[in-house]
Amino acid sequence: MATFPLSALAQKKIVLGFSQIGAESEWRTANSESIKSAAAAAGIELKFSDAQQKQENQIKAIRSFIAQKVDVIAFSPVVESGWEPVLREAKAAKIPVILTDRAVNVKDDSLWVSFMGSDFLEEGRRAGRWLVDKMKDVKGDVNIVELQGTVGSAPAIDRKKGFEEVIKADAKFKIIRSQTGDFTRAKGKEVMEAFLKAEGKKINVLYAHNDDMAIGAIQAIEEAGLKPAKDITIISIDAVKGAFEAMIAGKLNVTVECSPLLGPQLMQAVKDLKAGKTLPKRIVTEESVFPMEVAAKEFPNRKY
Ligand code: GZL
Prior knowledge:
Distance between the termini: 49 Å
Keywords: Signal
Protein name: ABC transporter substrate-binding protein
Mean pLDDT: 96
Domain Periplasmic binding protein: 17-277
Order of helices and strands: HEHEHEHEEHEHEHEHEHEHEEH
Strand content: 15-25%
InterPro entries: Peripla_BP_I, SBP_2_dom
Helix content: 40-55%
Shape: elongated
Low-confidence stretches: none
Bound molecules: beta-D-galactofuranose
Organism: Ideonella lacteola
């Protein structure tokens, strides 16, 4: 019978089960890449599942990780609600759960050990503050159309809330249309086409909850014979490469950073957990705002 030196057994690889939402945006692709490369660099065995933006697939993946007795489970919840049952199963199996990117809405916070990701409320506020400053000398109404992220997701809920919290200070700001584009370019274009058909030249501003929907909307605006970032001021969130390319082309006014590069932080947290350390309940990613004026200078420094 083969025997293993204690050192080999002692170095048994940590196994992390990760349930990813899907591949709906440039942001998500960069996020998955960050997690995969950081796991490899950390020597952590990664079981990675792509849920194609369906909550039931994430729940199935988490159940499979429990059955495989992984050491740690991490996931980015596609929506905030509906997680109690499967998180209770993970807790019963004594497998710690780390939330990355998006939060869950559960009564019992002991069902997850830590949440690392951006402050979406603040991202919405930053978008609102940029617009209020940009429009400070405008006297008449500022008519805004809004492309929301995935219905029920933490970023969609909080980016809307944060933005409205800031613009409500002046009644001239009016959100005249608001609909989900599900964080994708295709849907962003489709919904912007409908906005343009309904409101046309009345639209002064587009607030998109992510760059992919903004990029899709830019195509719709151009096909309607209007100049994006001139006839319609465009604000979006993520700060992915496509947004910098759009700003350099003069078609997007500003993007609020939301970093997908959570991989190294996640792997460190997994290692700390396995070493018996307690993790902070909330780890916030530090971020910035990039207006088109700085895009060309900043672009070479971008990592996603
Ligand atoms: C935000 C993330 C969002 C991005 C979108 O942290 O959950 O999902 O803003 C992505 O681009 O699809």
